[in-house]
Amino acid sequence: MLAGLFSLLPLPQEAFADEWSFQQQGGAFGDPVSLALVMSDDMQYAFMLRCQGRSEPMYVMLGVPEVYRTPITNAELLIRVDDGEAFARHAIVDGAPIQMRFTAPLASLLFVELANVQRRIAVAVRIGSQIVHERDYPVANFAETYSRLKEACWF
């Protein structure tokens, strides 16, 4: 399952469960893609913040192990930092035979929330009115990783 998830997102092979990591990929034809990511403790889910220099907005991505057979047009990513306000963003959905990826632009207000996180980052997928995935991600080494991402993404 993990290899399939890596091939879809793509994620660096050195990602570890419940540990945030930073990586840059590419750059031969423009700004490198910068990633801050964490894998769930069961290595089934991946949550990522992604940017490509100043040329793109920041995106959030959630990789999940399930595949939905019908086209999904009304998906949202929900993100809550600590016990703060839940941010809902319309998500683009794509996938492969064994996993799916939900991608949404990051709300600018969430930048400040993430910089001040103390306990958790909660992420969920809502399709229509139903929550179909929900995970809490640890923040133990998030501050250092987020700082590196901010520097790479110029925000």
Number-wise, the strands total: 10
Give me the Rg, rounded: 15 Å
**In percent, how much strand structure appears in the residues?**
35-45%
Percent helix, as a range, is 10-25%
Structural class estimated from helices and strands: alpha+beta
Average pLDDT number: 82
The largest beta-sheet arranges its strands as: 1-2-3-4-8-7
Order of helices and strands: HEEEEEEEEHEEH
Q: Report how far the terminal alpha carbons are from each other.
A: 34 Å
The global form is globular
Let me know the largest β-sheet: 6 strands, antiparallel
Number of helices: 3
- Ranges where pLDDT stays below 50 over 5 or more residues in a row are 1-13
Describe the structure.
The relative contact order is 0.21. The protein is built from three helices and ten strands; from the N terminus they run H-E-E-E-E-E-E-E-E-H-E-E-H. The chain is 17% helix and 41% strand. Mean pLDDT is 82; it is low at 1-13. With 155 residues, it is an alpha+beta fold.
